[in-house]
Design brief:
CATH topology: TIM Barrel
CATH class: Alpha Beta
Structural class: alpha/beta
CATH superfamily: Aldolase class I
Number of strands: 5
Shape: globular
Number of domains: 1
Order of helices and strands: EEHEHEHEHH
Largest sheet: 3 strands, parallel
Distance between the termini: 34 Å
Radius of gyration: 14 Å
Strand content: 15-25%
Strand order of the largest sheet: 3-4-5
C-alpha cells in the first residue's frame, strides 16, 4: 500500500488493510493498481478480484481502464461493483455513454 500521492510505500498489505477497514465498518473502497494508473493498459482484474474475495468489501476498481472492452471485463467479473475511468475518457478512447452501455450489456 502507498500513501501521500503514492510517494510513501508502507509495509501494510492491501488485503490486510482491507480487512481492518471492513472490521471498522467500511463497506466500499477504491482499489487502485498504481502500477497501471494512467497507463491505459487495462485494470489488474486478477488482483482486484482477489482483494474483493479476501476482504468481502464492495470494490471500485481504478487504474488502467482504457476501453469499452475493459469495462465489459469488469462488469463480467461480477464481484467488482464499479470502476473509475479517467484518462481514457480525457483522451477520447471511449465516452461515458459507451462505458455505461458496455457495463449494462453484461449486467442482468
Amino acid at each position: 500500500m502507498a500513501t501521500r500521492g503514492w510517494t510513501d510505500v508502507t509495509g501494510v498489505d492491501a488485503v490486510e488493510l482491507g480487512r481492518r477497514v471492513r472490521d471498522a465498518g467500511v463497506e466500499r473502497v477504491i482499489y487502485t493498481d498504481i502500477a497501471r494508473d494512467g497507463k491505459l493498459q487495462g485494470p489488474n482484474l486478477e488482483a482486484t478480484l482477489r482483494f474483493a474475495a479476501e476482504t468481502g468489501l464492495d470494490v471500485t476498481v481504478s487504474g488502467g481502464v482504457s476501453s469499452v472492452e475493459d469495462v465489459r471485463a469488469i462488469a463480467a467479473a461480477g464481484t467488482i461493483h464499479s470502476c473509475i475511468i479517467g484518462k481514457a475518457i480525457y483522451e477520447g478512447r471511449l465516452t461515458l455513454s459507451e462505458a455505461v452501455a458496455a457495463a449494462n450489456s453484461i449486467v442482468p
